[in-house]
Amino acid sequence: MIPFYFHPDALLEADQAADFYEEQKRGLGKRFIETLTDAINRIRRNPRLYPKVFDNIQKCRILRFPYGIIYRDKEGSIEIIAVMHFKRKPGYWKNRLK
Fold first, then answer.
1. Can you tell me whether residue 46 is helix, strand or coil?
2. Fewer CB atoms inside 10 Å of the end CB: C or N, the chain?
3. Can you state the angle between helices 8-24 and 28-45, rounded to 10 degrees?
4. Is-contact 13 92, C-beta < 8 A?
């Protein structure tokens, strides 16, 4: 599988989402992380499968949660740019592309 890494802000978003869900119901934060990991592994197996949302940027929906992974194939690795809640302002992550 293709290696991957998180933009620091994306990792923070994932942690905050997991914490939020864990506060809502015990074990739900863990389920969020498991589902996020599953989505990352799907991307790593076939990164071109998911739709482009901007230039070479793609989005993979996280199953059972209102989140998506914004990513790009960058020099043979997957860069996870954002772990985005779908109700958040679209495109806020574009300043991370530099």
1. coil
2. C
3. 140
4. no
